Amino acid sequence: MPLICIGPVCVPISAVLPVVLWALRPLWEALPAPMRERIAAAVRPLLAWLDHTVFSKLRRLFGRPSGTGAAAGSARAEQNGASTSASTAPQAIAAFSRALALALDGSSGAVHAIGSTDELAAARELSAARSCALVLDFTAPWCGPCQRIKPHYAALAKKHPSHIFAVIDVDEAPELQAACGVLVLPTFQVCRGAQKVAQASGGVESTLDTIRDVLDQARKGQ
């Protein structure tokens, strides 16, 4: 995935392109209509290769038919379908939920890997049932800031064993990155059930202060 790392965060280039194109929009609108048509025709085939979480904006800008985007989404779903269906079978999800519950009961302070929408849904359900927070760390192996903050995140999980801490590899589960609206890595989200209550981005330890504040407030309210 092409990206730009600026200080403590990494941003996919696909997230920057819509901003650049928006800035160039006056120039685009000043071009003659036939020239715009030729440029749009040349660009359309490339759009299928770009990040589906961002390029709805590009499709609107270049007038790409929405059907093409849907077809690209279906192709990606079919490509990932076999592995996803196997990993999210009811038995696997039940086992995943039991592992989360046992970790909470045992106050292990473990960090759990979430790799599918079903696993995320199970974690949210347990968060709601136990009235505890679900903390999500969106990361990737190639993200330097993500790797630097990883030990601090694990230490935070150890200090708050009554809450669910999880990590989501966006390379393995891009659909979760899209569903949760994450464009910058690392990003941390705190949820209560299905409701997001806090978010912070950055690869420095102070980024986790937002998470600590939410968890400390929850502890005081108990």
From TrEMBL:
It comes from the Eukaryota. Pfam families: Thioredoxin (PF00085). Signal peptide: none annotated. Residues 87-220 form the Thioredoxin domain. Keywords: Disulfide bond. This is Thioredoxin domain-containing protein. It comes from Diacronema lutheri.
